[in-house]
Every structure is written in structure tokens, then in C-alpha cells.
Amino acid sequence: MVSSVLGDESSSSSPNFNYHYDVFFNFGGEDTRSNFISHLHMALRLKEINIFLDDKLNRGDQISVEVDPSQVRKQIGGFGEALAKHEANKLLTNKIQPWKEALTFAAGLSGWDLANCKDEAELIQEIVKRVLSVVNPIQLLHVAKHSVGVNSRLRKIELVSHIGSEGVNMVGMCGIGGIGKTTLAKVLYNKIANQFEGCCFLQDVRREASKHGLVELQKTLLNDILKEDLKVVSRDRRIIIRSRLFKESSYSCSR
């Protein structure tokens, strides 16, 4: 479902053009196109994700393929027959085994099963979230190279932070100014941020709170973790946001 595609389209009478796509849609069936795919397409477009659909291809001979993943994985049925024909060709002897391995690997890739999904809208949001995490990965924080004494202190923090365990964990770093607390926090953030669905680094909390208020800090924290432009305006809205946070694996760091 997700891939980065760079296509070239050229002819003798026109110049070359490069197109960059964030997502490539590979699907079959008109029912899928008119329902689920169209809804997913719209949800991704709203997030400014550039999508490649096969209806953008120049039309040629129509090809209709019904694929059973088990046939691909076991190389039976139509796939098995095709491979058997290729095996008879001595020129392709060295290519057959890599092809089989590639087919087995492709058929074994895990994904979402629309047939087993009770809520189509929820599945679409889950896919959009996954695509965003790939297309817009977590931005690492700038840290000076060869910072003195960071690695040894980082190992101590990792031992007490219980990263990967269930529940809410909190680690405090105390000390006088200038000893490298912020640098250490940034290094830790960069190292473990990709283990969480959402993360946020709040710097200069005291100054920002006095300048803009705690509500703005809350909005920054929630927006970074949930990757949405949220407004904390009412008690009911806060309850909804809290419920969503319970479902997410998130990490935040403040200084």
C-alpha cells in the first residue's frame, strides 16, 4: 500500500517529466474503488499526501487479475503453472528461485484486512496515521556531536525509564544549569522517539508558559502527539482527547 514512487513519462514529441508520489495504491475491483479506496484517497488528500492511482496511467490493453495470497505464497494455481513454464526455459534457470522467494515474501507481508474490519472509517484513519508516520517521520532534534559524558548518563536513564513497559512512566533530570540536562534529554528523545506512535519535546517550559499560558503548551503537546490541530476548549472535548491518548503509545519530554 505504501511506497515512494518516482515515475518518468517520456515520448519522442514531449520532454521528460518527473513525478513524486508518497503513496501507491494497488487494488482490484470496481466495488473497492468506488467505496473504500475513494474514502481512503480523500482522507489522505486532506493530509496533503500525494497519491498515485492507476487511473493516472495511460490506457492500454485491459488486464484483469484475481489474486489469492495463498496461491502466491505456495506457488500453486495460476502462479504455479506460470513458474513451471519458466522453469522449462533453461535461460531462466538462475532467476526462478529468487522469483519464488520474492513471491513468498510478498504474500507473507502483514496488512489490514478490510473484510474483517467492523468500522471502515476507523480503519481508514489507522491507515492514514501509518502513512503519515512513513511519509513524515519524526524530526530528530539537533544535538552537538561528541557531547561529553552523555552516553554513560544515558544508559543510567534507560535503566530506570522502563521503556517498552505498559503504563505511564516518568523520569526527572535535576541539577544546576549548564550541566547538560537539555542535551541529555534531546539525545534520549532522538534515540527512543521512533518507538512511540506520538512524541513531543517541549523546551523552555517555564518561559513559554509565562509568555503564552499553559493552554498553549497543552495544545502544542497534544498536536505533536496526535498530529492534529486540536482545540482544548471544553470539558467534554478534554475527555475525548484523554480517551484518544489512552489508545496511543506516546512519549513527551519537557525542559
UniProtKB/TrEMBL annotation:
Domain TIR: 63-137
Top-level taxon in the UniProt lineage: Eukaryota
GO molecular function: ADP binding
Gene Ontology biological-process entries: defense response; signal transduction
Gene3D superfamilies per the UniProt record, alphabetical: Toll/interleukin-1 receptor homology (TIR) domain (3.40.50.10140)
NB-ARC domain sequence ranges: 165-228
Protein name as catalogued: TIR-NBS class resistance protein
